[in-house]
Amino acid sequence: MILRNRGGWHRVVLALVATAAFAAVVFAPSVSAARTTVQVTVDQQGANDEPGQKDLTRFTTDDAAPAGTLVVSFNHDETGFSGNNTGDGCFLFDTDSDGNANAALCVTFGGNPSMIQTTRLFTCGDASAFKCTNPQTEIASFSSTCGVAVTATDPFDSNAPNGPGDAYPNDTTTACNIVLADIGAGSGVLLDVCSYPSQQPNSDPSDCIRHGNVNAVTFQSFTATAAGRTVVLRWRTASEAGTAGFNVYRSQAGKLVKLNRSVIASKGAIRGASYRFVDRAAARPGVRYRLQEVTVAGKRVWVASTLVAAV
After folding, report:
1. Engineered SS bond to 64: which of 36, 190, 198, 294, CB 3.0-4.6 Å?
2. β-strand 38-42 against 56-62: which pairing, if any?
3. Which residues pair with 243 in a beta bridge?
4. Rounded mean pLDDT of 167-171?
């Protein structure tokens, strides 16, 4: 099951039984097995939560993929790109069961409308679950295939938070038939898919969709409000079963800066709890903050982001 770990909009997970639903987005890979169940996870934070080509809107997986393959797709909100601008996304895999990425299958697309440019496979430095860290080596030959097309599958209409999407009802859809033997280990596990700036999968991710079980925390809100020279961050959870605590990050000069010295402990409330954190840096409207959940199992998952709002 593929799941979106973001805060804001209530989680929407759709199980689509009709064969045609997924066939509409799997246009490049050739897969002979009949598809029976497609699961779609929609970005919990709604439309336009990340700018331009960074914004992922949904993720789909086909539970009936043939043995040894993984049939998946993900959507970018933008449907075309000017000049040399591109959209970029990578599927990240863990092959040694430590929760970090050992391999990444990356797709780059551009043009207007969007068209595929490259599909690349890398081995990674095993230091992050959300990017392909150095040492990073590109693999010259592999069997996995991907395709890119503009499809009428944007999940955010005018009734969605911050909706509709930029080109509603259209998104750029990347669909891949991943041959697991390419990943280099029989025990390879898909961690997540992330978007990156400028074709750099070893940079901090712009947006991620997590693979695995539903994360322990369910969010109701996450806000950042300028208050004099400081920024007050507040978040409210609806449930926290299995959550150890939280980390707060500020996006600064294209990098994420962790603000709390130690994990902000979960209040352990089954029905949820409220939290407050003060960033004493100079308050500037438009600065983005990201919230990370730390589970009792030690996993770190991006769950929400927000921009500074004036008082």
Report:
1. 36
2. antiparallel
3. 295
4. 92
Neighbours of 254 (CB within 10 A): 8
* Number of residues that this document lists for the chain: 311
Q: In the prediction, which pLDDT does 150 show? A: 95
Q: Is the separation of the CB atoms in 122 and 103 below 8 Å?
A: yes
Contacts for 16 with CB less than 8 Å, ≥ 6 apart: 22, 37, 38, 39, 40
Query: How much is the CA Rg of the chain, to the nearest whole Å?
Result: 19
- If you write DSSP's letter for every residue of 80-105 in order, what string do you get? ---TT-EEEEEEEEESSSSSS-SEEE
Q: What is the pTM of this model?
A: 0.61
Q: What is the DSSP letter of 297?
A: T
Domain positions in the chain are 2-211, 217-309
CA–CA separation, 33 vs 26, rounded Å?
A: 13
Average pLDDT score over residue span 140-161 = 90
- Amino acid making up residue 110: G
> Partners of 283 in the beta sheet?
none
Give the phi and the psi of residue 270 in degrees, each rounded to 5.
-60, -35
DSSP per-residue codes, 208-232: EEEESSPPSEEEEEEEEEEETTEEE
Q: To which residue do tokens 């066939």 refer?
A: 23
Pull the structure tokens for residue 202: 């070893």
Give tens-digit pLDDT for 258-302: 999 999 999 876 667 899 999 987 667 668 888 888 877 677 777
Nearest to 173 by CA among 196, 207, 210, 146: 146
Domain at 217-309, CATH homologous superfamily: Immunoglobulins (2.60.40.10)
